[in-house]
Write a structure and sequence with these properties.
Order of helices and strands: HHEEHHHHHHHHEEHHH
Strand content: 5-15%
Number of helices: 13
Mean pLDDT: 82
Strand order of the largest sheet: 1-2
Number of strands: 4
Radius of gyration: 25 Å
Shape: flat
Low-confidence stretches: none
Structural class: mainly alpha
Distance between the termini: 40 Å
């Protein structure tokens, strides 16, 4: 059946169905000749099952693991139920505090006395520790965003444009022992921003699907690694320009420094976010 019929039988929008396909949760056949998607009855049932699990708050990553048999549906439901219980308790505490604050006339940020509403401050902070852990992992989420990729790619393009007129006809593209061993036309400086686009469009999906870990943060890790690779590309571009002008000699040090900082931040952020579950 067509995408229009799939919308009718599932009650979901075309964008939702296409999203599940993009994430590898469904793979409809293609009709011969025109190559249009042909959704089977099994596809329709799977779409409804996926949508139902999403309404329970189960992540796309977990659903993928369920469908592949890496984890059982029962186990996933058990973990999600426990997570929801924790969230319900947290929301209940938050609602109680909100109601107490609302009953205070003319309440304002300047006049707010926290201890008046939460009781023992240390106990209250401890009860809400997941919030602070997620806050402290904010760097990872920022560096995993599309906006960060856009900034890195824009910087790469701008760097190439500004440096192009000052570069020699040929620039180094390969080094050994602090010496350039291979050169290419200076137009290759624009290959760096193009590489960032390729990484985002093609390699990000490959990293996500091939990332052999069972974690609700698999998508976050894939996004982070994508932006990290783009940052490495930007660093390589900057090194090329600085090498031409004699400012630096060894790219290995630059790349190792990039890897150490970003992998360290990723590990710390994921660990803190995980503790906040």
């Amino acid at each position: 059946m067509t995408i229009k019929e799939a919308e009718k039988f599932t009650g979901l929008s075309r964008s939702n169905i296409r999203f599940y396909e993009k994430e590898g949760l469904i793979a409809p056949a293609r009709t011969e000749g025109n190559g249009y998607r042909d959704y089977s009855e099994d596809d329709i049932e799977n779409i409804k099952k996926i949508a139902c699990l999403r309404t329970l708050g189960i992540s796309v990553e977990s659903i993928r693991d369920i469908m592949s048999g890496e984890i059982s549906l029962y186990k996933a439901l058990e973990e999600q139920s426990e997570k929801l219980d924790r969230e319900i308790k947290a929301f209940g505490r938050a609602r109680t505090v909100c109601e107490k604050m609302r009953k205070t006339e003319n309440i304002s940020f300047e006049k707010l006395q926290v201890e008046r509403y939460v009781g023992d401050l240390q106990d209250y902070w401890k009860d809400n520790e997941p919030v602070f852990r997620l806050d402290s992992a904010g760097f990872v989420h920022i560096w995993s965003s599309l906006a960060t990729w856009a900034v890195i790619t824009a910087l790469s393009l701008i760097t190439g444009i500004l440096a192009y007129g000052k570069l020699p006809p040929e620039i180094p593209v390969q080094w050994s022992g602090g010496e350039a061993v291979s050169f290419a036309d200076r137009n290759v400086i624009f290959a760096y921003p193009i590489a960032c686009v390729i990484v985002r469009v093609f390699l990000r999906t490959f990293i996500y699907t091939k990332l052999n870990i069972s974690s609700p943060y698999r998508g976050l890790i894939a996004e982070y690694l994508t932006n990290f690779l783009c940052f490495v590309i930007l660093s390589a571009e900057a090194f090329t320009i600085l090498f031409v002008f004699g400012a630096v000699k060894n790219i290995v040090i630059v790349l190792f420094a990039d890897a150490a900082v970003f992998i360290g931040m990723l590990a710390a952020g994921i660990r803190k976010a995980g503790r906040g579950k």
